[in-house]
Every structure is written in C-alpha cells, then in structure tokens.
Amino acid sequence: RILNDTSQLSSLPLQILFYVNGIYYIFYFLVTLAMIVYKTQVFSYPDDFLAPDLAVLFLMAILEVPRLYLGCKGNLTEEEAPLGLSLGVTVGSVVLCVYLLAWQTYVLWADVVLNAVLLCAYGLESGFKVMAIAAFVS
C-alpha cells in the first residue's frame, strides 16, 4: 500500500481565467485601438491628449504579458511570490483600465462595456489569486 500525501493546490478556475483573460485582452486591445483611431477621425481629438491615451493602452499591453506569465507560473508551480507579483501588476492594470474608462478624452458606450468586462475579469481573477496564495501558504 502506497500513501501519497501530495495534494495539488493550484487552482483550475484561476488557470482558466488566465487563459480567457489573455484572449479577451487581445480583443480588448485591438477594439480599443480601433476606437481611438475612429475617435481621431470623427471627433476633434486634441493632439495633446492622443499620445497619453495611446501610451496608457500600450502600457497596459506591456503589463499584461508579465501579469499573465507570473500568474500562470505561480499557480502551476504553487509559489506565492510570482502570484503575488502578478497581483501587484494587476493593481497597475486596474488603474490604467479605470483611466480608459473614466478619464480618456472621449469615452464611448463601447469603451464603458469593454472596460467594465475587463475590470470584472481582473476582480474575479484577483479573488482567485488571493485564495490560491492563501492555499499555498497554509
């Protein structure tokens, strides 16, 4: 009789969320970029405000890669540090998402929907990250 005391602590729902969020973010980025281009053509988009709006979108895209990588790595290897770092990067992504939701030059209805879905996904993912970290620590 062989006893196996090893238990799997990594979270399947969290891993699924990382996958879904990765796909959704690609969609989010492309649609948001297209809407910024649309806004520059349809509205009188001040040149001083175009650069910050684009910079925020591209900074979000840059942050998304390590956020998802560290989260996946931390979850699959059951390590708190990468998962905690991913959680920290998520806070930065949330701030940038709120900027695009509330403070960009023109906020269309589609912006509100896209950013609300992304914020809900970040919130759900963060909750699962905290639960996974708690499971790994205990």
Quick take:
The protein has helices spanning 12-42, 47-77, 80-103, 109-137.
Order of helices and strands: HHHH
How far apart the termini lie comes to: 28 Å
Helix share, percent: over 70%
Strand share of the residues?
Answer: under 5%
Residue-averaged pLDDT: 94
Beta strand count: 0
Q: Show unreliable segments.
A: none
Main location: other
Keywords: Cell projection, Membrane, Transmembrane, Transmembrane helix
Protein name: TMM80 protein
InterPro entries: Uncharacterised_TM-17
Overview of the molecule:
It is a single chain. The protein has helices at residues 12-42, 47-77, 80-103, 109-137. It is built from four helices and no strands. The longest helix has 31 residues, at 12-42. The relative contact order is 0.17. The protein has one domain (12-29, 36-137). The mean pLDDT is 94. With 138 residues, the protein is mainly α.
Labels describing this entry:
transmembrane, 4 helices, mainly alpha, membrane, Uncharacterised_TM-17, 138 residues
Sequence-ordered SSE layout with sheet pairings:
Layout: H1 12-42, H2 47-77, H3 80-103, H4 109-137
Helix pairs in contact: 1-2, 1-4, 2-3, 3-4
Membrane topology: Multi-pass membrane protein
Protein name: TMM80 protein
Pfam families: Transmemb_17
